[in-house]
Amino acid sequence: MNPVIELRGVTKDYGAGRGVFGLSLAVGRGEVVGFLGANGAGKSVTMRLLMGFIRADEGRASIGGADCFADRAAIQRRVGYLPGELACPADMTGVAFLDFMAAMRGASDARRRAELTAFFELDPRARIRSMSKGTKQKLGIVAAFMGAPDVLLLDEPTSGLDLLMQRRFVELVRAERDRGATVLLSSHVLGEVEGTCDRAVFIRAGRLSSEARAADLTLDATLERLYGADALDRHWAAPGAAVPGVAPAPPAPVPAASSKGGSR
Ligand SMILES: Nc1ncnc2c1ncn2[C@@H]1O[C@H](COP(=O)(O)OP(=O)(O)OP(=O)(O)O)[C@@H](O)[C@H]1O
């Protein structure tokens, strides 16, 4: 494989076990890879390292052979990045935000921008401050995809999108894959990973833990990969498993199989 996105032994240590540690990961040209991990596992930190927003303590992150930190200006122009949360002045309108992003990336394909805006039924004229969560997310998606980048880093891309828009997003990523784009996509949504990705890599407590074909992501197998083999046992045993103020319900008795048959 000729990797486009590559991490080699990357560590960013925030202390107290927080951060990412010795990450090695390669995404080949035209591959769509899902990046799965529990809350706080290190997905966004990895994305930010790849965008050159933060500098690794150790190891090397590169995209297309360019060092993500040393060549960050070029990386940030070239890569379509959808952050977990849009960072922009709240007073800005959506249109001004898209203009700003297009100017920053030197990408000004007005037709594609209009097509994406229509596809997601987005009216970008409002001030970002007044937009709903899903509308802001659509704005971020249009900004990330409008330059037709050949590399996309998408951090929880369907967060806040309604079901129809989630489906449209899956269709868009499939079209980008057919176009040959290389994509790393973090997600908590199994259907989205199954619908778009070739394979999934798992991160636990800042370390890559396992890898699976997207087609093999059953719920139980994924829970195990995310939290460990005893995940479900630990969940039920944990004091936090009871909903505050609600007495825990006794476990439902398993229906005894009748020896007389009598199925209806
Ligand atoms: N600037 C920072 N300073 C200190 N700790 C940080 C910083 N950024 C991230 N962390 C810590 O690094 C760990 C990984 O965070 P990250 O945001 O990458 O998680 P995530 O996998 O994206 O989680 P989620 O699914 O909740 O979005 C967390 O413990 C987080 O608190």
Automatic annotation (TrEMBL):
The keyword Acyltransferase does not apply. GO terms for molecular function: ATP binding. It holds the Pfam family ABC_tran. It comes from the Bacteria. Keywords: ATP-binding, Nucleotide-binding, Transport. SMART domains: AAA. Residues 5-230 form the ABC transporter domain. Residues 243-264 are annotated as: Disordered. Signal peptide: none annotated. Transmembrane segments: none annotated. PROSITE patterns: ABC_TRANSPORTER_2. The keyword Nucleotide-binding applies. InterPro entries: AAA+_ATPase, ABC_transporter-like_ATP-bd, ABC_Transporter_VariousFunc, P-loop_NTPase. PANTHER family: ABC TRANSPORTER ATP-BINDING PROTEIN ALBC-RELATED. This is ABC transporter ATP-binding protein. It comes from Adlercreutzia faecimuris. The lineage of its organism: Bacteria, Bacillati, Actinomycetota, Coriobacteriia, Eggerthellales.
